[in-house]
Amino acid sequence: MKKNDVVTAPGLMEMKLRGEKISVLTAYDYAWGRLIDEAGIDVALVGDSLGMVVLGYETTLQVTMEDMVRHTAAVARGAKRAMVVADMPFLSYQVDDDAIMNAGRLVVEGGAKAVKLEGGGEVAEIVEKIVNVGIPVWGHIGMTPQSVHQLGGYRMQGKDADNAERIKREALELQEAGACAIVLELIPAQLAKEITASLEIPTIGIGAGPHCDGQVLVTHDVLGLYDRFVPSFAKRYANLWQITLKAFKAYNEDVKRGRFPVK
Ligand code: KIV
Questions:
Q1: Does domain 9-256 correspond to CATH entry 3.40.50.1820?
Q2: How many angstroms separate the CA atoms of 186 and 203, rounded?
Q3: What Cα–Cα distance (Å) separates residue 53 from each residue in 46, 48, 66, 166, 221?
Q4: Domain positions in the chain
Q5: Which residue has a Cα nearest atom 5 of ligand 1?
Q6: How confident is the model over 105-163, as pLDDT tens digits?
Q7: Ligand 1 in contact with 222 (CB < 6 A)?
Q8: Is the CB of 218 under 6 A from ligand 1?
Q9: Per residue in 39-56, is it b (16+ CB within 10 Å) or e — as a string?
Q10: Is the bond into 202 cis (omega within 30 degrees of 0)?
Q11: Residue 210 and residue 71: Cα distance in Å, rounded?
Q12: Is the Cβ atom of 216 under 6 angstroms away from ligand 1?
């Protein structure tokens, strides 16, 4: 992929064929969209992690379609080259007719180039319907945060043979349904390797080892901007919490002591 090439769903497939790794970061507003674009990252994922790292909820379950449309549109105003992929929030795709309308809203009102939804075989029919109206769909299997209560926490999935087989099957079902990429979250590296080798479409890993076709991280984890927890698999490239806190304290001192403004 050349630096200024616009990233598309077929472009991601070509990257897999060429063996070129796909880079993905989450984005929630105009500035992150622009920065992701400028840094040459392939995909700006408007994740429903928005609910936790931006809106301060305990889980992603409270995120609404209105939240996703507003933040996707903000990211899309900044990201012109990177592909903007928007998460479908909890309960926005489990009902067929709603699913197509909601996916359509993320594309038409939000400017997304694809939508992502969580689940395997149980959502395959919905994936197919959304794909059939012309909207590229990313799947998301393994640890699926919208099922956190059912899974009993943010735990690694697919550790035993039965669960590993189920996740492999889900990946194939999603590909069969027309998904153009699949996020593999928090599964053993060996399982992610086998799934990646078995699929024609790219896998994007998060806490799933080095063998996926691409990697995604939550931007707030990369920048040290989330104070509640940092997943062990995340790599922190900067500590913006500390940098921002220092700047805010300096501003506070300047105002309190009459050092700003000077005139
Ligand atoms: O919501 C999100 O940010 C995601 C990524 C962690 C894959 O789904």
A1: no
A2: 13
A3: 12, 9, 17, 30, 9
A4: 9-256
A5: 47
A6: 999 999 999 999 999 999 999 999 999 999 999 999 999 999 999 999 999 999 999 99
A7: no
A8: yes
A9: eebbbbbbbbbbbbbbbe
A10: no
A11: 30
A12: yes
